[in-house]
Q: What sequence folds into this?
């Protein structure tokens, strides 16, 4: 890198170019995550990561950026809004026990690829301005402690639900990073939490996964249970999942800061294949070929058809009893997967034991 570059001006340009690429905010921080490292290691020691062994697999690379990418001295952090619909529409979907609820980040195209592509474009724009430099882009794709980095870069604070919240703008956004060897000026961190005495996210969590302010036990989190967990969902937690078949947004829906959240301007994050309107029986009828086709280019595809059916069987077990639902479940009783069959039997037992319509939130 030439020594006569105006780094302060370059920093301003990077933020402008980031906005032009669709990011709502860009911030820059150093690589000191010592405070976050202690907290992260305590979280691992408590076993709150469950079966997500990859969270501990890379040692200190997650909390020491220069160990992951040599010569990294700065991290360019960016956020992009993804909320596809007004929040009242989300509540209506969630409160209809016959409809499937998917976390809103998963309704459109896979954010991993889109964010990385935009960050790569930003890095190339920087390269055109300064010449070759060292960098690597990330979006939830490597051992990166993205929320503490984003907080240090001034993009928001970690709320009591542990998601990042942007002041007056909420939390419905994705994060991405560029690790770089450019010694750019850093932004002031967001050191203060603006959650105050509010505990809306803690109180609304269906499974009690937020075990204390700023402390999440992933083993109880519906996002973990429906996405990260590969085996059976613990029976005690199944009734609490309701109609949520892929992730959960309850803590974000309850957060007062999200009353100000803006809808996404990115068309790629808008719902595909009517996934924001589909019924449980409609999705449960998808065979593997249909699932792979409909989920192509989506974050949902990583789930696989077997766990897709597992999750839907649980939701159908929580839905009001009807001939249609019972018939749908019975049609999967002989499914080749023991995992699917066990959850289908559980769901049918719920209906046969209850015998009258129920509603689970």
A:
């Amino acid at each position: 890198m030439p020594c006569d570059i105006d780094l302060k001006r370059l920093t301003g340009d990077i933020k402008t170019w980031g906005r032009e690429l669709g990011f709502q905010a860009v911030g820059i921080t150093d690589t000191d995550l010592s405070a976050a490292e202690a907290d992260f290691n305590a979280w691992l020691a408590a076993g709150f990561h469950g079966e997500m062994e990859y969270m501990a697999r890379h040692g200190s690379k997650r909390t020491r950026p220069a160990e992951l990418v040599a010569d990294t001295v700065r991290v360019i952090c960016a956020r992009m809004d993804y909320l596809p619909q007004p929040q009242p529409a989300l509540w209506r979907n969630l409160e209809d026990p016959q409809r499937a609820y998917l976390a809103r980040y998963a309704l459109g195209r896979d954010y991993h690829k889109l964010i990385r592509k935009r960050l790569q474009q930003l890095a190339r724009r920087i390269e055109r301005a300064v010449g070759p430099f060292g960098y690597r882009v990330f979006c939830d794709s490597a051992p990166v402690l993205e929320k503490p980095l984003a907080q240090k870069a001034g993009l928001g604070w970690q709320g009591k639900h542990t998601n990042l919240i942007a002041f007056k703008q909420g939390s419905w956004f994705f994060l991405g990073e560029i690790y770089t060897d450019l010694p750019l000026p850093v932004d002031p961190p967001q050191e203060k939490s603006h959650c105050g005495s509010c505990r809306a996210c803690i109180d609304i969590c269906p499974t009690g996964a937020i075990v204390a302010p700023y402390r999440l036990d992933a083993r109880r989190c519906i996002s973990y249970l429906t996405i990260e967990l590969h085996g059976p969902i613990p029976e005690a937690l199944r009734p609490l999942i309701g109609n949520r078949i892929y992730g959960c947004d309850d803590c974000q829906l309850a957060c007062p800061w999200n009353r100000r959240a803006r809808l996404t301007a990115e068309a790629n994050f808008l719902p595909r294949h009517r996934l924001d309107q589909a019924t449980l029986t409609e999705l449960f009828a998808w065979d593997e070929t249909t699932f792979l086709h409909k989920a192509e280019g989506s974050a949902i595809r990583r789930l696989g058809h077997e766990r897709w059916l597992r999750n839907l069987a649980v939701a159908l077990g929580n839905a009001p009893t009807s001939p249609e639902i019972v018939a749908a479940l019975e049609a999967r009783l002989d499914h080749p997967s023991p995992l699917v069959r066990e959850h289908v039997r559980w769901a049918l037992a719920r209906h046969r034991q209850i015998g009258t319509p129920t509603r689970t939130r």
About this structure: The longest helix spans residues 111-130.
